[in-house]
Amino acid sequence: xxxxxxxxxxxxxxxxxxxxxxxxxxxxxxxxxxxxxxxxxxxxxxxxxxxxxxxxxxxxxxxxxxxxxxxxxxxxxxxxxxxxxxxxxxxxxxxxxxxxxxxxxxxxxxxxxxxxxxxxxxxxxxxxxxxxxxxxxxxxxxxxxxxxxxxxxxxxxxxxxxxxxxxxxxx
Amino acid sequence: xxxxxxxxxxxxxxxxxxxxxxxxxxxxxxxxxxxxxxxxxxxxxxxxxxxxxxxxxxxxxxxxxxxxxxxxxxxxxxxxxxxxxxxxxxxxxxxxxxxxxxxxxxxxxxxxxxxxxxxxxxxxxxxxxxxxxxxxxxxxxxxxxxxxxxxxxxxxxxxxxxxxxxxxxxxxxxxxxxxxxxxxxxxxxxxxxxxxxxxxxxxxxxxxxxxxxxxxxxxxxxxxxxxxxxxxxxxxxxxxxxxxxxxxxxxxxxxxxxxxxxxxxxxxxxxxxxxxxxxxxxxxxxxxxxxxxxxxxxxxxxxxxxxxxxxxxxxxxxxxxxxxxxxxxxxxxxxxxxxxxxxxxxxxxxxxxxxxxxxxxxxxxxxxxxxxxxxxxxxxxxxxxxxxxxxxxxxxxxxxxxxxxxxxxxxxxxxxxxxxxxxxxxxxxxxxxxxxxxxxxxxxxxxxxxxxxxxxxxxxxxxxxxxxxxxxxxxxxxxxxxxxxxxxxxxxxxxxxxxxxxxxxxxxxxxxxxxxxxxxxxxxxxxxxxx
Lengths: 171, 531
Ligand code: SF4
Ligand code: SF4
Ligand code: SF4
Ligand code: SF4
Ligand code: FES
Hints:
heterodimer; A: alpha+beta; 3-stranded antiparallel sheet; 5 helices; B: alpha+beta; binds iron/sulfur cluster; binds FE2/S2 (inorganic) cluster
């Protein structure tokens, strides 16, 4: 691609800096007007800011966006996962650790005794979701707040991952 | 001899060979389920169909003998279509269990379907449901739905274990493998049915869900369970961070050896690997004020070398182990017999009473290398004491140091018989792999590595030299026996210095007449007979 060369005025930057200042002050005074009006009880249709007021306000995400994992459950709230380890096998970051066990019900047969994901290492590729033959793992909680003060805090176990279903309740 | 062509390649084979075996000889694999080289031919799965020129119908290659001049096609259009049809038929009632099924990854339904399958199902009916996860014996679980009714397991129980617990019951869609009423699949060889089942219908209760097969690594080795020296694969997994409670060996599988064990191993050998990861002695210990305290190797070696220097050879008794490799025992002999002049050396610890043995694989002697100890001469000569005399002399305070190599004397000879002797000696040195009752008497514990953690050779009861190979790193601080002896020798300033088992074996072939001419490369994975 060819870069457009800058004109003399643009190269001085003064015009561009001023343009920026004008835009910022426009928003500032506009917002200040709205906030003062609000203060005196006059509500306007206008929002108080052009920015998104996180965390009260959240940006909508694409339906294809990959975010915090969850383990889906059967009707009786037991995990859908059968510990086949497809996700563990495909995971390029090797951050899934599963231990399988014998389920008392022979029609289910196998279940994860433990299922841990270390999100500190996860690269959010979504391969685990693609690989799962049971639709047992998904990344559709729309949760982005996955920060922690420690590495330990980034490790999610089976119970926590199943608990993430609460973010997807449809009622 | 017959001359025939298979897929355009001309070949000559012995008369009486089947087409399937002939094809295998020139590297053409004909898919099959019911055929197993170690069992009689049933010819019921029809997966092995081939086309023979001039014969109107396709023929099963596992049961059709070659005849002179025939032209066989294993990849013609008709054959491929037939295979597709057979697979479609087999999958009519087959469940979609692969995520749960232990066989996934080594399942011949999966493998053949990928190669020859018909990918669009044309089946509309409901599947016949059968019994799932049925415990049919102490070692095996049956899933009837996954069974392709090849009958291998039934023939195994009739022909190899000769216990006839299994049969095929009912008709048509409802045919099912099952044990006969009031019987369970419980014989000394029952685990083998899992190996020969081409699908996941029979799974191993011990291995179930422990590890997916694609995580396993394998190493050829020899079963240390008895003097037959069956060839095995050690299947292990050390890569996954969350291993089954830190266990490394996942299962033992038989390794084909025409001369020793064919395709089979006994259950005792198959499930006898647990000691590799459980209850191991991981550090050297020295008894201080009645308690075993972990110490460093240097400290333990220094103390033991001190003892060996202090006491005259007549007051020292050595009990080598037929569980150790020839290499271990050779270095033991060099150090204790040749250099230190100890004559009281006897490996012959009586085996436990009433051990099972048969005329198939299981031998009475539960050690893999008694023959090796015999060849190396690890028994008393020139007025040396036998084990029971050593123990008696220990009670009389004549034997003051007893160096036990991995023998649980308490278990093998009885607590009353050995307790006095073991507590009378000044120092009891126990060099071995696992804690046991004899360890309670020990003053020194030296951790040694198991068969899965070292290289070396065993000689089985028929005089076959076979190699074991290191699959795992020694657990904890444990070391191969020969390395421990080299450490002691160094401390004593004795010139016994080796770099590895192959180097030791080279010396054995020079010094022990029955080994002359052998080498690791000659032994290979199959082993070789002495003389
Ligand atoms: S999103 Fe990718 S990196 Fe993260 S757990 Fe799934 S497979 Fe592993
Ligand atoms: S792929 Fe799905 S069913 Fe398999 S272990 Fe992962 S989450 Fe469980
Ligand atoms: S037997 Fe083979 S095809 Fe059938 S469920 Fe098991 S792995 Fe899958
Ligand atoms: S259980 Fe396995 S070995 Fe036995 S008949 Fe069925 S598929 Fe064959
Ligand atoms: S292998 Fe030939 S019919 Fe089964």
